[in-house]
Amino acid sequence: MQHDACTLPALADVAKKVGVSEATVSRVLNGKAGVSDSTRESVLTALDVLGYERPTQLRGERARLIGLVLPELQNPIFPALAEVIGGALAQRGFTPVLCIRTAGGLSEADYVGMLLDQQVSGVVFAGGHHAEQAAPHDHYRLLRSRGIPAVLFNASADDLDFPCVSTDDMTAAGQAYTHLASLGHQRIGLVVGPEDHMPSRRKLAAFTQAATRGGAGSAPVEHALFSLEGGQAATTRLLRHGVTGIICGSDVLALGAIRAIRRAGLSVPGDVSVVGYDDSAFMNCTDPPLTTVRQPIESMGKAAVALLVNQIENMAVYPEELLFEPELVVRGSTGRPGTGSAVGALPPFCTQSALVLESASFRTRRHGHPGA
After folding, report:
1. What's the sign of the alpha-carbon dihedral 35, 39, 45, 51?
2. N or C: which end of the chain has fewer CB within 10 A?
3. Per residue in 70-122, pLDDT tens?
4. How is 259-302 classified by DSSP, letter by letter?
């Protein structure tokens, strides 16, 4: 609920929030001179954050608030993205407003309505309904009709008319398949998200192309919810096809795959190799460390903020997709089929310290490749 911004409690609350005197807040609310632009913006932003209405003469001005709408925070890729985007927005003088969709909680459309009430300057959507062909999209069209800038993170439906920042999903799936095939795997399966999920569709298309080129007689595919349990259930079904390598559409799905393999009495990578996607936090600390395809989150997050701010500042921004190059990160969850050895297994007569140095050198070379 919003409150009248002219009351004394509002003056005290806003002054405390910004760290200025009540007299300074009063001058801003009454349009008086003698207040710097930065202080004035801070006062107006504090009004919006605290839920107070702006005075009538100031309501035509948008707050320097940016909505960041995420599906969850349990998947570590989303907190990492929020950190990058939040930091980039703060550097440009904007305040991020984090909106988390939860089961049984507020929907994306609910959050969009709330953000519009707060006079936001723009919205960034990540892992949202824009990536689901069958999901409701009316709230995106509402933003467009109101002239509110927005940026979509990762592949979206074709008709939303907003700029999009994405990892090249087809390249990512191709990198994972080529890696497993180079190790000698011939029976490779794929676990991705729901059938209407656009990034999953792209990964599936690339996987099918790679399997056809490689002459694979069988290339089983399973769709799952993006959760550890979803990955486990989908992998249990895949194992019935006798796969020796599994490509997953997220690191969380990959962790579920590893659990399913072990519960089937098999080992990773001795019996089945697993490749994830994201390279989210702590994937180098799992058992075994997860081979995965890294999304360049920092570069993508900063690009999304730049696209959004350009729209806010009325610079020309085309509703097109920026594709960023993924990077295969090879760790211990992949190896040659049926040998029980990982790619980075310790060679005979090699000391443990030599392996660490070799691994460090490999990762340094990897980091040297700039993202697209």
Report:
1. negative
2. N
3. 999 989 999 999 999 999 999 988 999 999 987 778 899 999 999 998 889 99
4. HHHHHTT--TTTT-EEEEEE--TTTTSSSSPPEEEE--HHHHHH
pLDDT tens-digit series, residues 202-247: 999 999 999 999 887 779 999 999 999 999 999 999 999 999 999 9
Using CA atoms, how far apart are residues 54 and 283, in angstroms rounded to an integer?
46
Q: How far is CA 304 from the centre of its chain?
A: 11
Question: What does the DSSP 8-state code read for residue 33?
Answer: S
- What is the Cα–Cα distance from 144 to 330, expressed in whole angstroms? 42
Which value, to the nearest 10 degrees, does the dihedral of the CA atoms of residues 347, 351, 354, 360 take? 80
Count of all residues that appear for the chain in the document: 372
> Which is it for the CA torsion 257, 259, 261, 266, positive or negative?
positive
Strand partners, 69: 99, 125
Residue 134, CA distances (Å) to 46, 106, 137 in order = 38, 19, 9
Cβ 101 vs Cβ 69: under 8 Å: yes
